[in-house]
Design goal:
Elements (H helix, E strand, L loop, with lengths): L15 H27 L13 H25 L2 H26 L5 H4 L8 H44 L1 H18 L1 H15 L12 H7 L5
Length: 228
Amino acid sequence: MTCIKPVGETCCGCPTALGVNFILMLHFAVDGMLLLQAVGRALPAGAGGALRTFGPDSAVACYSLVGLAIISAAFYGVAARRGALVRTYLFYMVFTVLADSYFVVQAFVLTDVCEGARSISADTGPVLACGITRALGGGVAAACLALQLYFVYLVWSYSEELAQRGAVNHPGLLADEAVALSTKRRSKDPFAAALYGALQDSVAATPLCGRSPGFFAPWRAAKQPCRL
């Protein structure tokens, strides 16, 4: 049981499936641009040039290529309501958000922005320009992180929705989980275990219209009562 409840619709009132499709299209476009940019940097500059060795651009290209495959599978998962494919994309998205958050904080918070702000306006003074630049950088970083966290929350909510629909379509799984939880509680509570054992012994000793008693005796007795 989680403290965070999944959302049933997006902030604009649209279904979560529509919002997830929008996120997938946006992420697909970003990964595609990163892949093209990395491949363009790795290609030789001239006709007789050689390809560059493995570096950050090659790592970004490989990561984007894997992401395109995962996002394509997630598109099918949303259309066919396959929760496993959507959850796989959720893991990829969380890792992407963590990596992107590091670069955003590095670029807008940890970098000394006052060096470039001194040449913006000499009339107002470098202190005011530095303060404005720091405030804008922190605001941009906070907005980017908040938007990405909302996207993650939306995709997680949709994956939970698909998981709940799958559990409703398979009620036997819920029954098995309830039986397992009841057994676990009886194992932790000696009084409940003793009471359950006494109840089972008393039910087993009750005649069941010629049938042999067993574990399912209470249900059989309720369905077919004995007539003396």
